[in-house]
Amino acid sequence: AFSDLAKNEARLANAQRIAQIGSWEMDLADLHDISRNPLRWSDEIFRVLGREPGKTEASNEIFLEAVHPDDRERIREAMAGAINHGRNYSIEHRIIRPDGSERVVHEMSEIIYDSITGEPVRMVGTVQDITERKHTEHLAYLAQFDTLTGLPNRHMLHDQLHQTLAQAQRVGGRFGCMFVDLDRFKHVNDTFGHNVGDKLLIQVAQRLRQCLRAADIVGRLGGDEFAVVLASLAKASDAGLVAEKVISALSAPFDLDGHETYISASIGIAIYPGDGDEVEGLLKSADTAMYRAKDQGRNNYQFYLPQMNERMGQRIQLETSLRSALEREEFRLQYQPKAELVRGAISGFEALLRWQHPERGLVSPADFVPILEDTGLIVPVGEWVLRTVCGQIKAWQAQGITPPPIAINLSARQFQQRTLSAFIARIREAGIDPSLIGLELTESLLMKDAQETVRMLASLKASGVRLSVDDFGTGYSSLAYLKRFPLDELKVDRIFVSDVTTDPDGAEITLAIISLARSLKLKVVAEGVETEGQLRFLCAHGCDEMQGYYFSHPMTAADCTQALIEGRRLQIPVTDDPLVDTPLVLFVDDNQNDVEFMQKALEPDAYRTLSANSPQAALELLARHTVSIVISDQNMPAMTGVKFLSVVRKLYPRAIRIVMSGVGDSGTVTNAVNEAGIHKFLSKNWDAARLRSEVREAYLHRRDQPT
Asked: Do both 378 and 454 map to the same domain?
């Protein structure tokens, strides 16, 4: 019998060694201090812990010391719950062996009770080394899931698509495939770094999951590309509803390490049946539709249409042609002049790249510059631009023309130390004054690695080139870093300039940028100036220079030469004298009869008058003329009179503001007087004499104001 027992124990020990599972047993004589209770380990427990059997006594202290520090409290709580409350446990945790290696174990325990008293008498358990199994499971996970977002990866998504397709083919069903590409992800990555970019992708994955049904599948294909399988669609248009939901969800701000960041998504949709009979075809159709969404301005979705293949083919052809365009000398430069806003003289040019395709003709920069960036061709093309600009400056000097500075746009791929060193060397080789070359860098590019940018800009500045921030106001600049950047000028982006006479937000942003430039002692240049009103606004508020169609479209080098020889100038608008004896009164009312009455009422006093039927039209007139008095109707469709006059107060504080309204509105308007700084509220009782008196009093009040 003893021999049989020994054999059984040997078999058990061998089985435990093979399974890497050890057993332990602890008497529960003392429920208050378990360290005093006898504890027995099988040999395999020692081996799992990395210790030699027989050389160490079994103890809870040794076991807990071996448990990974991050898991230790969890084990203590599990043991206490078992002893005090009879809760058996099954738990996975890590242990650290004496040699420093880490293992993963699965531990189970059970309380044994006295059959008579019901009191706990023993606690037994097992500890199994499952490290290899966990490693195998992890490899299987990596083969199917994206480690960053936890979403199915490309391989698993293909498998899921195959299953969905097979199911739809069996039952004659319909499903959708969406290709989701993030529009501004590269900007976030370049500006804040890859760690922040990864956090953004994780949040995007979470929002995508929230937009879908339980049966739908979302996976990450790689980078900033995601794919969605929309199972069992009742109708194709339902996919559009999901796409709208996704676009809305991704349009909300993301909080990334304290930075409130915005992105958008371009989505392509393919539907089975119709847009592909197999998985690759559906994905290709959805991808093609996604590129169409990008071409349509981004932040939208497009259903696949067969004709889109033609456009995708055109893009591929463009890329192929671009690779030989430089060698074939198909690129051209045009130059758009900048003008001073004091004398009107040409103060410089911006070099703009053009592509004269032998078959397509002039290709829009919007069509080929992104391809240059994507392919890296922007670097050799940028070198050609610099050589051409240097050559043009030398040509003007040879003709006896004093050349103004020429600015060149610098891309992210070019903004590298080695490329910039070669850039400076080229200028020196050309033998021209570096101050005649300007570099325009986007706001987001500067903030990519702000500390490194400070160093690189300092090197450029030391060489003598001029440095400008292009598209200012559209990125995420840190004012602390802007003060450290050795810049020469800020360029106000055209999206703000275009609105200065019609949108108070655009006007206020432009004024804020001008004020910021002043405080940083930088020159400020307004881009995209197209109207006299915009020009007058900029002149009135201290902008230094302008660039835009109002002065000149981009020109050939020959036209620029002629403009310099002729001394072409911008005609600076003559400013009205605000203190002439016949002040200018602006009536703003969508009722033409009311306007005519007010104009007729003021005829005896010989006022000059203007009228506008909307606040937007009135803001344009205010930009073009020095208006002494603004009289606005309160009840207009687009904007109330008080709201409009509050805008006037911000932009034209010296203009006297009067609001008129029908009887019964006085209480409402009176409460809003402080908001707009209204000089007077008048009821529309059409008392011509009173109107003349109030306008006269308002004019005298304005005349007596300090300038």
From this structure: yes
